[in-house]
């Protein structure tokens, strides 16, 4: 038969009195159950407390991180804005140079100047930053295009400058100018398509501009002749030489030695006959000296 009651004896220290309690088994079971529930609940609470305190630390850390990220974001926005301003200045300088070079404005110039105050919430701030970055990238592409165009233009200008005859091809003095004159041979009026520069035989003759020797031979009337093609429609002719010092197809620079003064062909004395032609039409070489 199962025991249903327990007797609990309590004997205080140094006393002879004994206290006795009768405890029912069922009550003891209840007490044990309640104690167990309390222990388990306490344990759960403790675990929850631990977790919460970890979360709290995490929250503080995240808050700190968020704060510094916000500051970082603001710094980014500010430096982006500075960049944008610099791009505007660059665009203005570019426009000035283009005006100086008489080039048209690059296309899509109207894209510049789009901006506005930064938005408040983070996602739109990031969208704004992205937009500004895209804009700056576009501006950079535009500037690059413009710079390349300018460089091409300047190179063309330089080549043109190098191709245009300049200076005296020989040291001497002008004895006959460009235009209609009485021919020293027939006595009749005849077009003189160049100028004559008197100089001793053997005096060096120099190229008047960069170019390629297109003719180097003896030609009736002209005697020993050098012709140089400078590009851009310009050609120069050096006639009556005593010696030719270049070959056809040879590349020459301005002031390169090409011949020596002489008296070959229809000539009445040692001199250089010098012609400048643009697209085949003789121009007055005096304008190029
Ligand atoms: Zn002449």
Give a written overview of the molecule.
The structure is a single chain. By secondary structure, this protein is an alpha+beta fold. It has three domains: 5-66; 70-163, no CATH class; 173-288, Glucose Permease (Domain IIA) (Distorted Sandwich). It is 41% helix and 26% strand. The strands form four sheets. Strands 3, 6, 8, 9, 10, 12, 14 and 15 form an eight-stranded antiparallel β-sheet that branches. A hairpin with a 2-residue loop joins strand 14 (271-278) and strand 15 (281-283). 17% of the residues are buried. Bound molecules: zinc ion (ZN). The site of zinc ion has 5 residues, from loops.
- Could you tell me how far the N terminus lies from the C terminus, measured between alpha carbons in angstroms? 142 Å
**How would you state the average pLDDT, rounded?**
89
Strand proportion: 25-35%
CATH topology of the largest domain: Glucose Permease (Domain IIA)
What binds here, in terms of ligands, is: zinc ion
Q: Which spans of ≥5 residues are poorly predicted at pLDDT below 50? A: none
Q: What is the level-2 CATH architecture name of the largest domain?
A: Distorted Sandwich
State the helicity in percent bands.
40-55%
Number of helices: 2
Briefly note the structural class of the backbone. Answer: alpha+beta
Largest sheet: 8 strands, antiparallel
CATH class type of the largest domain? Mainly Beta
Shape: rod-shaped
Query: Could you tell me the radius of gyration in angstroms?
Result: 51 Å
